[in-house]
Amino acid sequence: MMTEAEQDKWQAVMQDCVRHCNNGIPEDSKVEGPAFTDAIRMYRQSKELYGTWEMLCGNEVQILSNLVMEELGPELKAELSPRLRGKPQERQRQWIQISDAVYRMVYEQAEARFQGVLSKLQLARPAMEAVIRTDMDQIITSKEHLASKIRAFILPKAEVCVRNHVQPYIPSILEALMVPTSQGFTEVRDVFFKEVTDMNLNVINEGGIDKLGEYMEKLSQLAYHPLKMQSCYDKMEPLRLDGLQQRFDVSSTSVFKQRAQIHMREQMDNAVYTFETLLHQELGKGPTKEELCKSIQRILERVLKKYDYDSSSVRKRFFREALLQVTIPFLLKKLAPTCKSELPRFQELIFEDFARFILVENTYEEVVLQTVVRDILQAVKEAAVQRKHNLYRDSMVMHNSDPNLHLLAEGAPIDWGEEYGDSGGDRGEGSCSPGSLEAATLSEKRRRAKQVMSVVQDEDTGLPFQAGSEPPSPASPDSVTEVRSLLSQGLRAESPPPESSLLNGDPAQESPQPTAAPRASSPPASPAQHLPPGKAVDLEPPKPSDQETGEQVSSPSGCPRIHTTTEDSLGMQTEF
Length: 576
What we know:
By secondary structure, the chain is mainly alpha-helical. Helices cover 57% and strands 2% of the residues. It has 14 helices and four strands.
């Protein structure tokens, strides 16, 4: 890239791709995903490696490859580095080639063995399920008996450790997390407000309803537009745990930054989807130009109220999970010298038939979790009661909100260009060739759960930015939709398309960000590294106030409570 502006755009696209690939384990996997990440964490703890691990990213095979390379890489470098010849830059290039080749070999072997393990588990599953169904009551009773014995043994030590080494620092960790995260979610709100307001002004001053399809095509891609979302993501970059990072063995804050950024994108996509659906319903009434502009403003206000509540719920869940991820490994490490060696004697309390379902190590960690989770929940609750950083209490509902707003179902995505655009005009941010229209339409219908935007059209100069070593030729695809269709064809060849599970701005669900699994013949060259942030863009739309968000304590005769799962998972989340 020859200019700073072009470089900033390239960095924004690349960072979005890194986030997309790092979010490789589907979040709708409520059993297999946590079980896999727990197994990885326990393996590292057996090597005395506690705390966060920034290479816990990508899909399962990539994570296993990273785990092998964590041990193999330093040994290999120590053995081979003295044998490399040439200038420092040349030696570095040689080492990168060697490590890349080794990573590919490790990846291929890990993939084959992981698939073998999955096949064995699948074959063993029916027999295990039959035992569970038959002996569920006995299994639960045995588990509770084991937990009570472990609790009696470790609780006094764990409570002292929590009181002396964790409790005093929870408010500081929470405040360090709340400031940049809340600023990022506020920026998401501001960007959404600005984009919808600009579209409304364009409807009034320029195109009217005839141009609405074109405007909505661009708005529907907002959450996946790296440049427009970059100012939101940049708000997380100042996150620091100064003085706490060493104490709690947090190797890097990147896991928290990327997790928060993924939540921002999901909430933006939910807000856009809700706006699209409500506007589409309004257009069915055949409004005039003036009525349409008033409707857009009214719908915008409704969506912003819903966003304020949803973002509060998502942030509170994120804060709880992040606090657990910081404190639990620290507690396990502190208690290991006095407690870990005593765990094998609890194995005799488990019937041999149930040994596959009840694990002493897991039960021990659950007991440790219970000692600190109350303090974490209380800290987050107090922040919400004090309305810090625009957090709401769980007992709050939106005043005068549509009780059915949260019940909008996820239907087929609206094709604005087809319904309201010119049939022969441009689509999205460029034109599609006739041969790619069908594929582009199919790709667009799955865009929410499919591919992060990988081509950004420069709206000022019209210059496309494409990944490649050569400049685009006149025949190269020059629109987001067309390039997406080509990417989608390649992805469909590798794996079946995932189902979209995005709900209308509902914080109850974490929208999965599926990633195409790499082929065995073409593993990733090496784990993605984080890039320096781009420049932030400051927007200043009106901020939410008490009157605007309209909070009130729910009562039996009030509006029905909006469905969330704010208090769902209290267990330690290791999907970061």
